[in-house]
């Protein structure tokens, strides 16, 4: 039989938690506490997702503090979080939950319509009918719906040198963070290179393999898919650009190249756009992509 806690026991636990937060400097960072009202404690904490809380050490009396600080500065991994018995300390645990919420939000977020309007991108959809189905059935995210095929046939320029489109992938947040920087750079680079760019658009519930089906409709020499990467804890803005030379229905990952981890803090979005244009030029020069492109270029180097 489970024994229920009394009000006094609950108050004791709350007092212990507040005491630990005070010890870890939360109130000094801007938290406000009000007294008990009708037996309850109101606690207004500072934003624990700020760098001040992420970069500090929660290890009590580390053997070599300077080594721990130096190590923490080299990686975003969760080290130096300390423990209270077998569990994390309160602040690192709360940060973990906050970061997990960021991941969940990214997975289910819809694209901001104003972004599509800004770049005059029309929207089509894969064969996945919902986000839940998209996550459970990756194969449907690699196929265009019948309505999408019809829309692309009606609205897209055919036989361009390069077809660029964006897809939400596993993080529409990533598209919102990076498209404004990446897409104009690609467009300008292709124009300067004298290459014809197809009609850009946006795919809802899209996966990387969808570029094969896109090219069945548009017949481009190179297809570029800008897509949101799988979000990590507290990291939802990373985008990738997948490229393929004349992708066909049976093309695989081995036939593609990628510029990944695009965000401010990873591959700079402006630089990423330039990388994509350079990749396109190399693909068109050698009429290849993926492993075949690398083997050709290695052969030339040798």
Main attributes?
11 helices, two-stranded antiparallel sheet, 302 residues, alpha/beta, 6-stranded mixed β-sheet, 10 strands
Question: Strands, helices and their partners?
Answer:
Layout: H1 7-23, E1 32-37, E2 40-44, H2 51-54, H3 65-73, E3 83-84, E4 87-88, H4 90-108, H5 113-118, E5 122-125, H6 131-136, H7 146-155, E6 162-167, H8 172-192, E7 201-204, H9 210-218, E8 222-228, E9 239-245, E10 256-262, H10 269-286, H11 290-301
Parallel strand pairs: 5-7, 6-7, 6-8
Antiparallel strand pairs: 1-2, 3-4, 8-9, 9-10
Helix pairs in contact: 8-10
Outline of this structure?
Helices cover 43% and strands 17% of the residues. It has 302 residues and is an alpha/beta fold.
Report on the structure:
This protein is of the alpha/beta class and 302 residues long. The protein has a domain at 111-301: 3-Layer(aba) Sandwich (Rossmann fold), CATH 3.40.50.11240. It is built from 11 helices and 10 strands. It has helices at residues 7-23, 51-54, 65-73, 90-108, 113-118, 131-136, 146-155, 172-192, 210-218, 269-286, 290-301, and strands at residues 32-37, 40-44, 83-84, 87-88, 122-125, 162-167, 201-204, 222-228, 239-245, 256-262. Strands 5-7-6-8-9-10 form a 6-stranded mixed beta sheet, sandwiched between helices. Strands 1-2 form a two-stranded antiparallel sheet. Strands 3-4 form a two-stranded antiparallel sheet. Helix 8 crosses helix 10. The model is unreliable at 28-41 (pLDDT under 50).
């Amino acid at each position: 039989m489970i024994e229920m806690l009394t009000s006094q026991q609950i108050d004791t636990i709350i007092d212990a938690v507040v005491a630990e937060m005070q010890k870890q400097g939360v109130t000094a960072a801007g938290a406000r506490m009000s007294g008990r009202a009708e037996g309850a404690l109101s606690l207004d904490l500072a934003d624990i997702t700020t760098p001040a809380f992420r970069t500090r050490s929660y290890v009590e009396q580390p053997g070599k503090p300077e080594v721990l600080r130096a190590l923490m500065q080299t990686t975003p991994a969760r080290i130096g979080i300390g423990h209270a018995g077998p569990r994390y300390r309160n602040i690192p645990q709360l940060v973990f939950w906050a970061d997990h919420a960021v991941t969940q939000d990214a997975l289910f977020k819809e694209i901001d319509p104003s972004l599509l309007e800004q770049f005059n991108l029309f929207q089509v959809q894969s064969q996945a009918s919902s986000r839940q189905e998209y996550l459970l059935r990756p194969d449907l995210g690699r196929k265009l719906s019948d309505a999408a095929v019809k829309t692309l046939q009606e609205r897209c320029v055919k036989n361009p040198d390069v077809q660029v489109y964006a897809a939400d992938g596993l993080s529409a947040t990533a598209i919102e963070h990076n498209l404004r920087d990446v897409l104009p750079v690609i467009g300008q680079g292709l124009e300067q290179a004298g290459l014809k760019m197809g009609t850009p658009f946006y795919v809802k519930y899209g996966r990387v393999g969808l570029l094969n089906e896109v090219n069945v409709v548009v017949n481009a020499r190179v297809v570029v898919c800008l897509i949101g990467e799988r979000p990590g804890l507290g990291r939802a803005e990373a985008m990738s650009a997948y490229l393929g030379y004349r992708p066909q229905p049976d093309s695989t990952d081995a036939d593609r190249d990628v510029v990944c981890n695009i965000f401010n803090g990873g591959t700079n979005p402006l630089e990423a756009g330039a990388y994509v244009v350079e990749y396109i030029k190399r693909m068109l020069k050698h009429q290849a992509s993926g492993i075949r492109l690398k083997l050709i270029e290695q052969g030339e180097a040798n």
